[in-house]
Amino acid sequence: MSLATIDRTPPPFFRQGASAASKLVFFAALSLFLMVADARFRLVEPVRAALAVALLPAQQALAVPLELVAAGSEYLRGLTHALAGERAARAALAAQSARLAALEQQAADNRELRALLELRPALAVRSTAAEVLYEAADPFTRKVVIDRGAAHDIALGAAVIDERGVLGQVTRVYALTSEVTLLVDKDAAIPVLNVRTQQRAAAFGGGPGGTMELRFTSANADVRVGDVLQTSGLDGVYPPGLAVATVSSVERRAESGFARILLAPAAPPDGVRFVLVLAPLATQRPPRPDPADTDAAGAERSPRRAPRGARAAAAEGASAARRP
Questions:
Q1: pLDDT at residue 224 in the model
Q2: In this structure, what CATH number is given to the domain that contains residue 164?
Q3: Which of 121, 146, 164 is the last residue of a domain?
């Protein structure tokens, strides 16, 4: 066999195409072109969507074990929380049942005592449901606007409450809306009654951090942290027994005759949407007597009875006339 017939082509392993630098430049330019084209003309978006659809079953199959583990742990946590909540609800229900029985007994006793003493029955307070529309535009006040006004028989000074307690008082009435000043406003004030000591005081808004203050209370007053304050019903505006606030801190100052008492409102105003507007008790009670009429009636009755000095002088004269 002659040497001319021998294949002199190199094996495929030793074949070289373009150089590595040429390949780097080519693929870098291609990548740059694809990025610019995708950013400007969205050319690769259909390809990306097709790949996402094609790979979706594989992604879902790979995510199944993780989802099973997460769902199992979430189920176990939810079951634990549900059992704890059920126990707490049963305890609260038992406590509420005991309180309800005590309240029913107290209500029966009150009815019996009122009948025995021939007192008037407790006044039924008329209420109107309303929705909070928005807060007042003034950032330095705490006021809200409700969707009930003079057309719905809303009276000026009516109490506004929710399921937790007193929220505020109607301070301005329009035709279809009303403005409510909240208890935490700096100009708000409400008479309160300490449930534990039965002492009356006045609570004012404007405390630090949306709290209230029990002002003009002596430093040695019997007020403790945790005392519950309610409406007394003697002001003619708020019905008795409505929750107002709870004493959160008591600071007795040695240099002042008054204590600084901060209150936590029973009904925080943030997040409230639906409220009840209660008619003022003064509209259902007999009108108060006019001081001028009282003075006139006293002046009319005064001539019918002689003064004490005149009666003493007349008695002395009568006794002297009987003497021999």
A1: 92
A2: 2.40.10.340
A3: 121
Are 198 and 240 contacting, i.e. CB atoms less than 8 angstroms apart?
Answer: no
Q: What is the average pLDDT value for the chain, to the nearest integer?
A: 81
pLDDT tens digits along 67-78: 899 988 899 899
Residues of 195-221 as b/e, b for ≥16 C-beta within 10 angstroms?
A: eeeeeebebbbbbeeebbbbeebebeb
Place of tokens 């108060």: 288
Q: Are 215 and 188 in contact (CB under 8 A)?
A: no
Tell me whether strands 228-230 and 189-194 are parallel, antiparallel or unpaired. antiparallel
What's the pTM? Answer: 0.56
CB contact at 8 A, 272 and 180 = no
Q: Which two tokens stand for residue 267?
A: 């009904």
- For residues 254 and 110, membership in a common domain is answered with no
111 with 41, same domain?
yes
Which tokens belong to 194? 């300490």
pLDDT at site 289:
67
232 vs 234: CA distance, rounded Å: 6
Sign of CA dihedral 75, 78, 84, 88: negative
In terms of residue numbers, what domain contains 92? 23-121
